[in-house]
Structure prediction request, 480 residues.
Amino acid sequence: MTAPAWTIPSVRAALEAKKVSSRELTSEFFACIERRNPELNAFLALSPDRAFAQADRIDAIIARGEQLPPLAGVPVAVKDVISTCGVRTTCGSRILENYVPPYDATAVGRLESAGAIVLGKTNCDEFAMGSSNENSAYGPVRNPVALDRVPGGSSGGSAAAVAAGLAVAALGTDTGGSIRQPGAFCGIPAMMGTYGRVSRYGLIAFASSLDRIGPFATTVRDVASILAVIAGRDSSDSTSVPVPVPDYAADLDRPVRGLRIGIPREYFGEGMDLIVRQKVEAGIRLLESLGCVPVELRMPHTDFAIATYYIVATAEASSNLARFDGVRYGLRVPGATLLDMYKKTRGRGFGSEVKRRIMLGTYALSSGYYDAYYLKAQKVRTLIARDFAEAFQQVDVIITPTSPSPAFRLGDKTDDPLQMYLADIYTVTGSLAGVPGISVPCGKTPDGLPVGLQVFGPHFGESLVLQLAYAFEQARGSSV
Prediction:
């Protein structure tokens, strides 16, 4: 039984044919995790009691001959910034080292209601702040494609777990690229929906106007199946939108001939690795061969996206992380006074990148600087969103690289935060605009490192994004 071969349809078929029980399949995945996780460090916590209880429920449904739910028996992993009742949730931080949530995030509850089996929690950059998974307080994750390389961040543990066959699918979060970029680095499809498409209830916030929960899987069809389960209005999250959720998987086979694909000039400029450019351009030619119509675009405010993102996101992080003060939950380091306790707790509990972003955000929000930085960044964010709105009047989808380079080596960029931030240069734009996006594999470098192609769609255009990504995946094979 080879774990990486499992997909949602193959799990269902095996269970229905009684070739394997849900308990046996779950045991196989835990055995695989035990073998591989010591070198990958993808999982921070496992939940065997919860997993086997769910597996037994699935086996009981099969024994009764009842209809299986859509994700019956599918082993999944959950990023450690998403709350899981009774299962430790650390956000990759020492400050929440022993925190056990008393409730499930809505997305987790919906997965389990659909029959999925939660294996455990995956490693991530601390509070989802990073592009390499090297900011975790519990050590970096290693890319299963090349162990000396990063898996991307911040959802590197989820991407590595799926790519290594330690889970059939996983949940990550994307604030500025933290689903799509790890998907590209690990060579698997990875998607964020429109802001508001998936409930954020139970997600421990980094930047509330940017954070989104989304799926990793080994096929676009599986990504579509997971998204269909977790999407939809949630009364516990006022930012979730009451827009009907289509049957994404049913739409995948629709023809893509005649779709207008936008190629924005600004995404193919300086700083892109030559091999990435060649693979993405080959991917565009493949889409043309399927009948898609390329349209060159200008998105003039793209160059301001990184600066804008790192003001908006850090300002919101400064506000959101103020709650971690040692008073109510998490780490508490005693001090002579209340202020001393605050300082010692936050000083010991937060890592250097989180401290950096809190300080940047606090500065941007401070008296005398708010208008010059935060307010101006919000205005530029509006211009970036307008670029997308105008582009989607001319095209159906937008095609870009996911990342300017393949996965870089562990330690290569840890001493240069700006270079690390630039790893998200092609993903933060869609985050600021609130549009959906997916990264799909579009080939490998000569030394075997995956390259990702990114597809953006209009607001609530997930079906279109998935449709094009699926057509690309089916046509690609090893041709690019």
